[in-house]
Each structure stands twice: as structure tokens, then as C-alpha cells.
Amino acid sequence: TYYRHHRFVPHYRYREHSANTENLLPEAAQPATPTYPVIPEVFHPAPESLHPAQEPDQSPEVAPAAMVHALAPLSRGKVFYGVMFDAGSTGTRIHIYKFIQKDPVELPVLDNELYHAVKPGLSAYKDTPEEGGNTVRQLLKLAQKTVPEEEWKQTPVVLKATAGLRLLPEDKANALLDEVREVFAESPFFIPKNSVSIMNGTNEGILAWVTVNFLTGHLYSNTKRTVGILDLGGGSTQITFLPKSQSLTPNNICLRFNMFNHTYQVYTHSYLGNGLYAARLATLGALRADGKIPVFTSSCLPKKFQEDVTFGGITYKVSGIPDGYAGYKLCYHEVMKVIKGIVHQPFEVKGSSVFYAFSYYFDRAVESGLIDGSRGGMVEVRDFKKRAKEVCNQMTKFRAISPFLCMDMTYITCLLKEGFGFKDNTVLQLAKKVNNVETSWALGATFDHFRNLNIH
Ligand SMILES: O=c1ccn([C@@H]2O[C@H](COP(=O)(O)OP(=O)(O)O)[C@@H](O)[C@H]2O)c(=O)[nH]1
User: Fold this and answer.
1) Which one, out of 49, 131, 268, 325, has a CA that is 20 to 30 A from the CA of 174?
2) Can you say whether the dihedral through the CA atoms of 440, 446, 447, 451 is positive or negative?
């Protein structure tokens, strides 16, 4: 499961590490006292390691060839680690990244990632925060098994929560974060200041863009091309891409940040409440319920289906419409209400770059048989639509895979077409991992920890 070819040039200034990536202060505002002199603060790409013939857009899943030559000497390099927790609305995940730096003038390399996920997410423990803390404690044990003991004190451990905690009342979210802080405090790792926080949606979108463009080789290639990202979580969804023409882009919706000696200005938007699970509840009308409706129904569900559904620690009774109609058209009409007026179409998305789609885009494409789960693959927006129609119009056939498959596939189709304005023939590259590393904001956030990206 290892991948070991990502090369960086280290920067040999050290400073105190602030994990507060929500407060990305300009470099000058950082404290000057060196208190953590072990891990290189700044990573740059290795220009000499780039393969000029490499055209990442043509083989997006393949690492630039020249990165691979670092394989042999790796075992003798200086090793360092970074641990990033993703506290998502539907699960908590740990990413343990191992970097190797052969010698001070050589380039640190991302050697591999160890990834593990548990369900449910922290927000399910909103009334029992101690239990929530325990899930993090269990995952930290994995870090202790993976990171050699002599590295524990230098290895930063950071947790960032996303939509699940954003959607909770502040006191409930804070109680969970405080529990995690206690768990971290008793751990043998390096716990930076502000290591436990709720990340804002903007940073979530940008850091996922950084991860995917790094893993696909676009950040340090000579080509100016990059790929866009589409992330569909349980509670929120993000779209991030580099607009073709900066001049047409109003500054207020584009963000700048520095990475590998470049300044990027990307369009990013996070829609809270438009993640897949939140959208299910919105489609069912459960979110604006006043307590009088005992069962929430939808024509997106099999007629005879009835079940309790839990999201964010709340349980709802849901069912199909027993003597009504079910099917794609009615379902599309229902999910349209959730999209309309919430998601706006970013200009320029039409004909823009290739988009990588992951998280629930990937999971549902696999479940519905659009792509192979181990290989991922390219689909067009119209493929989601076609498969959504098939699933919705033969619900009994797909019932065993998931009773929500019709609703989810229709929502994804509607989000892509009506929400973001993608054309039927827009190509999406579906991937769970690129070069064996999870496509998630977590790697970007780890870079951000080691080298402040100065997002503004
Ligand atoms: O490293 C990761 C992190 C997340 N996911 C997937 O991404 C979705 C994440 O949704 P999440 O619960 O984080 O939702 P959010 O809180 O972002 O709305 C789920 O399908 C996860 O399986 C993944 O495949 N790899």
C-alpha cells in the first residue's frame, strides 16, 4: 500500500509551528523563536526531478516518472511523520504520513500514507463527548504502532473537523473538541498549538485541491494546467478550480495562496447542508420538520421501504410512498428543491479543466456499477444521469445495494447539472486514491501545517 515518490525541496529556516490553519497569518506575523527544529518548515518541488516529457493531464493517475528514481536511497534517509485526523460528518479518519529526507540538500519525499477510518463521526457523540474522544484515542493507538517511538515527540498530531461539527450547536461541538484536546494532551506525540479545530469550508476546498494537484503532479510541473476538485461529504460539498481567466473572476470569490513557489488564485465554494446525507434529509423534508410529521416519505425510495435513519446523532423515520409513485422524474423534482436557490453555478465551469471527483461521488459511482472500485475511472456527467434513471426506475433491483441509491444518484446528477452547471459531456475523473494516497483535504492540510500556505 505504499507510495514513495513525492519529492520536495526542504527549506532550512525553522519556526514555531502553528496548526491554526484557519488563521493563516502572513509569514512576517509568525513568532521568530525556533521551538521546533526538527521538521522542515517549507517544502518546494524539485525542479531537477521533473520529467519534461511528463504530461500529467494525459496520464493523471501516474506519478511523474522522475519522481520514482528516489526509491533506492530512501531507506537511508531521515524519516519524519505527520498525523492528520479528519473528523467528518460520517466518520473519523486518521492519516499517518511518512516523509523521508535523504540528506539536508536533498528533497524530502512523501514515502507513504497509512489510513484508517471509523464510523460514525464525532457529531454522533454530541451527547456523549467522552465516547467521541474514545474513537480518537483508539485511532491514536494506530499512530503509536506506526510511528517509531523515538519519533513520537517530533510528530505533530492535528485534528480538523468538517461539516458534522459545523452543523452542531456551538456548545456541543466545543465539548467534543475539548474531549479530543484531552486525548491529545495525554498522548506522547507533539501537539501543536490549536491542533484541534473546526476547519472552515473554504480551507477544506482549497486543501483538497492542493492534495489532488500535488498527487497528480500538476503543482510542480511546468505546465500551467491544474485539475478541479469536487468533494461530496455527508454534510457539505466543495467545488474548487483554477479559473481559466482571472480577469473575469471577481476577487471576492477567489482565494490566493502560495505553494511550491507559485501563487495560485482558485475559485472555491463549500455548501454546508448540501453533503449527501444532509441532502437526503432535506429531500425528505426532515430538516424543517416541526415534530408533527412522524414518518418522512419520498418518491426516491422504494415504495415498501421503511427504516430509521440517523445523521448527526438524530434519528428520523423514513419510508417510500406505499401507494404512490416512485421513479426518476418525481425524484428529480424532489431533489431539485434542495439544489435550487442554494447552489449557484460558478461562471467558467463550462469547458473548464478536468475535474477530479471523490468521496461520495466515488462511492456511489462504485455502488451503482458505473466504475470499478479498485481502479476508479472516467465518466461523463450524462453517465450519472443515465444510471440514476436506471436505478430509480428499477428500484427493487437495486434495493439490496442501498435503498437510497436512487435518491443519491439523482441528487448527484442534479447537483452537477443544475447546481454547478456542468454539461452532459463534462468528464469527471473518479478516484478514491491517487498513487495510493487518499484524495482528501488531509494531505494538503499536512503541507499547510509544515509550511503555511498563507491562504487569503
Ligand atoms: O481520506 C478520506 C476521507 C474521506 N473519504 C470519504 O469521503 C466522504 C467524507 O464525508 P465526510 O463524512 O467527511 O463529510 P463532511 O464532514 O466533509 O461533509 C466519505 O465517503 C468517506 O468515505 C475518503 O474516502 N477518504
Assistant:
1) 268
2) positive
Q: Which of 30-39, 106-115, 298-307, 309-318 has the lowest mean pLDDT?
A: 30-39
Give the model confidence (pLDDT) of 309-322 as tens digits: 988 888 999 999 98
Better pLDDT: 56 or 241: 241
ipTM at complex level: 0.96
- Phi, psi for residue 394 in degrees, rounded to 5: -135, 60
The C-alpha atoms of residue 40 and residue 3 are separated, in whole angstroms, by 21
210 is written with which cell numbers? 492542493
Q: For strands 314-319 and 296-297, give the pairing.
A: parallel
The predicted-structure confidence for 429-452, as pLDDT tens digits, reads as follows 999 999 999 999 999 999 888 876
CA angle (444 as vertex; 440, 446 as ends), nearest 5:
110
CA distance 89 to 70: 37
The answer to whether 89 touches 234, Cβ cutoff 8 Å, is yes
CATH code linked to domain 276-342+377-430: 3.30.420.150
The residue with greater pLDDT, 39 or 282, is 282
For the entire predicted model, the pTM comes to 0.84
With 60 as the cut, is the pLDDT of residue 455 above it? Answer: yes
Answer whether residue 63 shows pLDDT above 60.
Answer: no
Which ligand 1 atom minimizes the distance to the CA of 121? Answer: 12
Q: Taking the alpha carbons of 275, 281, 285, 286 in that order, is the dihedral positive or negative?
A: negative
Residue range 6-200, CATH number: 3.30.420.40
Q: Does residue 9 contact residue 45 with C-beta atoms inside 8 Å? A: yes
42-44 and 9-11 beta bridge pairing: antiparallel
Q: What is the dihedral of CA 24, 22, 452, 67, to 10 degrees?
A: -150
Domain boundaries, the chain: 6-200, 276-342+377-430
Higher pLDDT, 350 or 432: 432
Q: What does the alpha-carbon distance between residue 421 and residue 406 come to, in Å, rounded to a whole number?
A: 21
CA distance 225 to 262: 13
Instruction: Judge if the beta carbon of residue 211 lies within 6 A of ligand 1.
Output: no
Instruction: Tell me how far the alpha carbon of residue 106 lies from the centroid of ligand 1, in angstroms.
Output: 34
Query: Which cell numbers in the block locate residue 296?
Result: 418522512
Ligand 1 within 6 A of CB of 231: no
Three-class DSSP category at 238: strand
| Nearest residue (CA) to ligand 1, atom 7 | 359
